[in-house]
């Protein structure tokens, strides 16, 4: 029962909440989501951190999407072995993951360490920054060290299939039942 809720019902509830929430915010409270501008206060860390974070996160999200959407049969058909695929995914993912983390660290450090920037920051801003930092750190550690903890697990035979099935409106909760917690 829990598997069906977590892996069949909940993804659609989250997606519906995302859409309805955005429509509601746009219609009734357009300008309430903003961070107060601090670009005039200290520009160097802002520029470096912002570029590293945004370029990195585009590739991190894009890499996850491509890794989940492209079927294993495709990479096998073009002659790419599982080992080669894994090395490329971990290598590129690690570089952009670390880039994103460094960018977020610089932005968070700037927000906390500069008095004038901190004065413009809400507690919510700092909590979001710290949550993003923790999420990025856990993702990097999972990528670098997690595969040694769960040898032989291939997410493309379970998580990827389930992910694609969500968009076809027929997700199979059984594919996710035995996924290691690390993933």
Automatic annotation (TrEMBL):
<feature type="transmembrane region" description="Helical">
    <location>
        <begin position="6"/>
        <end position="25"/>
    </location>
</feature>
<keyword id="KW-0479">Metal-binding</keyword>
<keyword id="KW-0349">Heme</keyword>
<dbReference type="InterPro" id="IPR023234">
    <property type="entry name" value="NarG-like_domain"/>
</dbReference>
<keyword id="KW-0812">Transmembrane</keyword>
<dbReference type="InterPro" id="IPR003816">
    <property type="entry name" value="Nitrate_red_gam"/>
</dbReference>
<dbReference type="GO" id="GO:0020037">
    <property type="term" value="F:heme binding"/>
</dbReference>
<protein>
    <submittedName>
        <fullName>Nitrate reductase gamma chain</fullName>
    </submittedName>
</protein>
<dbReference type="GO" id="GO:0005886">
    <property type="term" value="C:plasma membrane"/>
</dbReference>
<keyword id="KW-0813">Transport</keyword>
<keyword id="KW-0249">Electron transport</keyword>
<feature type="transmembrane region" description="Helical">
    <location>
        <begin position="85"/>
        <end position="107"/>
    </location>
</feature>
<dbReference type="GO" id="GO:0042128">
    <property type="term" value="P:nitrate assimilation"/>
</dbReference>
<keyword id="KW-0472">Membrane</keyword>
<dbReference type="GO" id="GO:0019645">
    <property type="term" value="P:anaerobic electron transport chain"/>
</dbReference>
<keyword id="KW-1133">Transmembrane helix</keyword>
<feature type="transmembrane region" description="Helical">
    <location>
        <begin position="127"/>
        <end position="146"/>
    </location>
</feature>
<feature type="transmembrane region" description="Helical">
    <location>
        <begin position="46"/>
        <end position="70"/>
    </location>
</feature>
<dbReference type="GO" id="GO:0008940">
    <property type="term" value="F:nitrate reductase activity"/>
</dbReference>
<keyword id="KW-0534">Nitrate assimilation</keyword>
<dbReference type="InterPro" id="IPR036197">
    <property type="entry name" value="NarG-like_sf"/>
</dbReference>
<feature type="binding site" description="axial binding residue">
    <location>
        <position position="64"/>
    </location>
    <ligand>
        <name>heme b</name>
    </ligand>
</feature>
<dbReference type="Pfam" id="PF02665">
    <property type="entry name" value="Nitrate_red_gam"/>
</dbReference>
<keyword id="KW-1003">Cell membrane</keyword>
<dbReference type="InterPro" id="IPR051936">
    <property type="entry name" value="Heme-iron_electron_transfer"/>
</dbReference>
<keyword id="KW-0408">Iron</keyword>
<keyword id="KW-0560">Oxidoreductase</keyword>
<feature type="domain" description="NarG-like">
    <location>
        <begin position="3"/>
        <end position="183"/>
    </location>
</feature>
<feature type="binding site" description="axial binding residue">
    <location>
        <position position="54"/>
    </location>
    <ligand>
        <name>heme b</name>
    </ligand>
</feature>
<dbReference type="GO" id="GO:0009055">
    <property type="term" value="F:electron transfer activity"/>
</dbReference>
<dbReference type="GO" id="GO:0009325">
    <property type="term" value="C:nitrate reductase complex"/>
</dbReference>
<dbReference type="GO" id="GO:0046872">
    <property type="term" value="F:metal ion binding"/>
</dbReference>
């Amino acid at each position: 029962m829990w598997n069906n809720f977590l892996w069949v019902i909940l993804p659609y509830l989250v997606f519906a909440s995302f859409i309805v929430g955005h429509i509601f915010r746009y219609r009734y409270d357009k300008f309430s989501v903003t961070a107060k501008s601090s670009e005039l206060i200290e520009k160097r860390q802002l520029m470096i951190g912002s570029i590293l974070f945004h370029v990195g996160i585009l590739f991190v999200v894009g890499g996850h999407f491509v890794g989940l959407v492209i079927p294993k049969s495709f990479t096998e058909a073009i002659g790419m072995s599982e080992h080669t695929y894994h090395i490329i995914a971990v290598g590129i993912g690690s570089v952009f993951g670390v880039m994103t983390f460094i960018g977020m660290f610089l932005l968070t450090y700037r927000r906390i360490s500069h008095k004038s920037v901190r004065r413009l920051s809400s507690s919510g801003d700092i909590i979001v920054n710290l949550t993003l930092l923790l999420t990025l750190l856990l993702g990097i550690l999972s990528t670098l060290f997690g595969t040694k903890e769960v040898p032989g697990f291939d997410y493309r035979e379970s998580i990827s299939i389930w992910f694609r099935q969500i968009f076809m409106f027929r997700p199979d909760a059984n594919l996710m039942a035995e996924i290691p917690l690390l993933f």
